[in-house]
TrEMBL record:
GO CC entries: nucleus; tRNA (m1A) methyltransferase complex
Protein name: tRNA (adenine(58)-N(1))-methyltransferase non-catalytic subunit TRM6
Ranges where the record places region Disordered: 305-329
Keyword rRNA-binding: no
Subunit field text: Heterotetramer.
Length: 482
């Protein structure tokens, strides 16, 4: 389902959309499937009813339900969302009026008794107050060591508490960057440890644009890679992506999360690599049969759009044919004698039903392609594109890519880029040597490794982040020649 736009062009949140909930720096991807849907953010449970038809990037305030009592403490707290028209987040230190701090932390001991408030008291504060500043103020007042800490330690303590009791949530529209960051944070192995910087390099080397057809094979990235390619292709284009995968069903989580319109989503042809190669070499019929049977399903990648004059001419022809056939059948019905017995009434009824069915068939002609399963139609679309060849090849394989490159390289036009991604450097090194020695169809080969490190930039204290994953795979790139 696609999102509707407001009068100023800003998209609105609709049922069936995937949305991203952001609370400070934490983001989560959820589906807004129904009015009564809820979403969990840690120990907070949010009712999503009030976000319907609201613009994306709106900020909502988390308001606890009034029926929360002691029985709910320790469980997920239920909140409703109220839209905020003007959100101004004050400086927590200035809001609390904190001006004093200690020189150093040498005399502070973590004995667990510095906070006089117990967990039940803090839960009661959360029920009484609807603002995080009020809760943090009470916690600071009841802390025995807060004013003895250094200013840096105080800011670190306040940010930690503000993150825990922050009461605002922003609804964002999914995009490739946010989805890649969410998947990478949750479980990097499910997307083959592809970071955002590696993904940008893949898109750049593959030269994906709104023109041309592209071939991809990937072993499973939750649909992140085909979604990135399809997003770069766009909707008002003539380009297509053939997405080959080893399983029976393609992974399309990221494709669905981006809420692509139907016209754009159909430009991604997902096929099983073994099935489509078998159909390509063996064939299911002549080329002419494929063009006549599957014309409707080959759009928008193969078939040329019809002109208005051609459409009107076809409609007039269909109406004339339908009228002639219905008149001939009616004449047959009229020639039946009126002196028929009651036993023949069933036969007359059958003829009349046949007339109605034929009339309906004339208005909606039967398409032979409808008897084929969806995967067969996708295979035919992919085979036609494979005959015309592609403008780029990308492979992200968990297995050794050598056989895949040898098989798929024949479907790529000359002077076109090829990009192979793997988590193992040795695998791409072997492929590099193989292409250099035994294959003259690829030149300008380069084996690269992306390495990016995030930095925390604060006044007088800039340093790299301590916890991060360094490896994001390796890329082998080159260009095809005759």
């Amino acid at each position: 389902m696609t999102t509707n736009d407001t009068n100023d062009g800003q998209p609105k949140i609709q049922l069936g959309d995937y949305i991203i909930l952001q609370r400070q720096k934490y983001t989560k991807l959820v589906k807004f499937s129904s009015i009564s849907a809820t979403a969990a953010l840690g120990k907070e449970q949010l009712e999503l009813e009030n976000i319907l038809d609201k613009p994306y990037f709106s900020t909502f305030k988390m308001c606890p339900k009034e029926d929360l009592g002691k029985s709910h403490r320790g469980r997920q707290r239920l909140h409703t969302l109220e839209i905020c028209t003007d959100v101004e987040l004050p400086n927590i230190r200035e809001a609390l009026g904190i001006s004093s701090s200690g020189v150093d932390n040498r005399n502070i001991t973590d004995d667990g008794d510095s906070q006089s408030l117990k967990s039940d008291d803090i839960e009661q504060l959360r029920d009484e107050y609807n603002k995080s500043t009020k809760i943090i103020e009470k916690i600071v007042e009841n802390s025995k060591t807060f004013h003895a800490k250094t200013e840096y330690s105080q800011e670190k303590y306040l940010k930690k508490k503000e993150k825990k009791y922050f009461e605002f949530v922003q609804i964002k529209r999914p995009n490739i960057r946010l989805i890649a960051e969410i998947y990478y944070r949750q479980d990097a192995e499910k997307i083959m440890s592809i970071r955002m910087d590696t993904l940008s390099q893949i898109m750049s080397y593959s030269s994906v644009s709104a023109y041309g057809n592209y071939l991809m094979y990937e072993s499973g990235t939750n649909g992140l890679l085909p979604a990135a390619f399809l997003n770069a292709i766009g909707s008002n284009t003539e380009a297509c992506l053939v997405h080959m995968h080893p399983g029976n069903v393609p992974q399309q989580q990221a494709l669905l999360a981006l809420n692509f319109p139907e016209e754009q989503a159909r430009r991604c042809i997902s096929v099983n690599i073994y099935s489509v190669l078998r159909d390509y070499y063996q064939g299911e019929g002549s080329k002419e049969d494929e063009n006549t049977d599957c014309n409707e399903h080959l759009e928008p990648c193969i078939k040329r759009p019809k002109l208005e004059s051609e459409i009107e001419k076809e409609d007039n022809q269909k109406e004339e044919n339908a009228g002639e056939q219905s008149n001939s059948i009616n004449n047959v019905v009229e020639e039946i004698p009126a002196t028929r017995t009651e036993n023949d009434s069933d036969e007359c009824k059958q003829i009349q039903e046949t007339t109605a069915v034929n009339n309906d068939c004339n208005t909606k002609p039967l398409n032979k392609a409808h008897v084929h399963q969806k995967w067969q139609l996708e295979n035919r679309r992919a085979c036609l594109l494979m005959r015309e060849k592609f403008d780029s090849l990308f492979i992200a394989a968990k297995e050794h890519p050598a056989n895949l490159v040898r098989e798929l390289l024949q479907f790529i036009k000359p002077s076109r880029p090829i990009v192979i991604f793997s988590l193992c450097r040795e695998v791409l090194t072997e492929l590099y040597v193989d292409l250099k020695t035994n294959n003259s169809k690829v030149i300008n080969l380069h084996l690269t490794s992306n390495w990016m490190r995030m930095y925390q930039i604060l006044p007088n204290r800039t340093h790299p982040e301590v916890n991060m994953q360094t490896n994001s795979g390796f890329l082998l790139t080159g260009y095809t020649v005759e």
